[in-house]
């Protein structure tokens, strides 16, 4: 478990690249916010969590399997993860933040990520990449 990364994961990078390509600018992993969201859009009062299906228990997903050994340990761990996620999202919403969860399995289709981001954050009016300023 020591090799499990909490930041800069593959799914997170897919979402970050899509958001940047669409013209959104954001902050990463702001520790002052509950749950330390993966992407923070301060001017839009919006946050995005990019959750791994296994660790955060995406219902109905094939990646949400249960390890065969130490079942009680894993059930308790997963229950804590889900509860902690729910509490963080509730606290953010109570503080006036809009919250979106993007699941790992959803990042396999980048065109869907673009639509999800635009639907959640709103159109930026500049869907084109920013030109180099050299």
Structural description of this entry:
The chain is α+β, with helices and mostly antiparallel strands. The protein has a single domain (10-121), classed as VSR Endonuclease (Endonuclease, Chain A), CATH 3.40.960.10. The chain is built from four helices and four strands, in the order αβββααβα. The chain has helices spanning 10-21, 53-56, 71-94, 110-121; strands at residues 27-28, 39-41, 46-51, 98-103. The chain has a four-stranded mixed sheet with strand order 1-2-3-4, with helices on both faces. The protein starts with 9 loop residues before the first helix and ends in a 13-residue tail after the last helix. The relative contact order is 0.19. The model is unreliable at 127-134 (pLDDT under 50). May nick specific sequences that contain T:G mispairs resulting from m5C-deamination. Keywords: DNA damage, DNA repair, Endonuclease, Hydrolase, Nuclease. InterPro entries: DNA_mismatch_endonuc_vsr (IPR004603), Restrct_endonuc-II-like (IPR011335).
- Overall tally of structural domains: 1
- Tell me the distance between the termini: 44 Å
Q: Major β-sheet, in short?
A: 4 strands, mixed
Would you give the CATH topology? Endonuclease, Chain A
How much helix, percentage-wise, in residues? 25-40%
Structural class label: alpha+beta
Number of strands: 4
Low-confidence stretches: 127-134
Give the strand order of the largest sheet, numbering strands 1, 2, ... along the chain.
1-2-3-4
Look at the structure and name the CATH superfamily. VSR Endonuclease
Q: Quote the average pLDDT.
A: 87
Function: May nick specific sequences that contain T:G mispairs resulting from m5C-deamination.
InterPro entries: DNA_mismatch_endonuc_vsr, Restrct_endonuc-II-like
Enzyme class: hydrolase
Keywords: DNA damage, DNA repair, Endonuclease, Hydrolase, Nuclease
């Amino acid at each position: 478990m020591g090799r499990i990364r909490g930041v800069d994961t593959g799914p997170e990078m897919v979402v970050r690249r899509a958001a940047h390509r669409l013209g959104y600018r954001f902050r990463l992993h702001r520790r002052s916010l509950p749950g330390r969201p993966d992407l923070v859009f301060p001017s839009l009062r919006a946050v995005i969590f990019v959750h791994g299906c296994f660790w955060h228990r995406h219902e109905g997903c094939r990646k949400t399997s249960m390890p065969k050994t130490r079942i009680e340990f894993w059930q308790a761990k997963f229950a804590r993860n889900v509860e902690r996620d729910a509490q963080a999202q509730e606290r953010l919403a109570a503080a006036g933040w809009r919250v979106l969860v993007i699941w790992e399995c959803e990042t396999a289709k980048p065109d869907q990520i673009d639509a999800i981001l635009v639907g959640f954050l709103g159109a930026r009016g500049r869907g084109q990449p920013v030109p180099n300023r050299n």
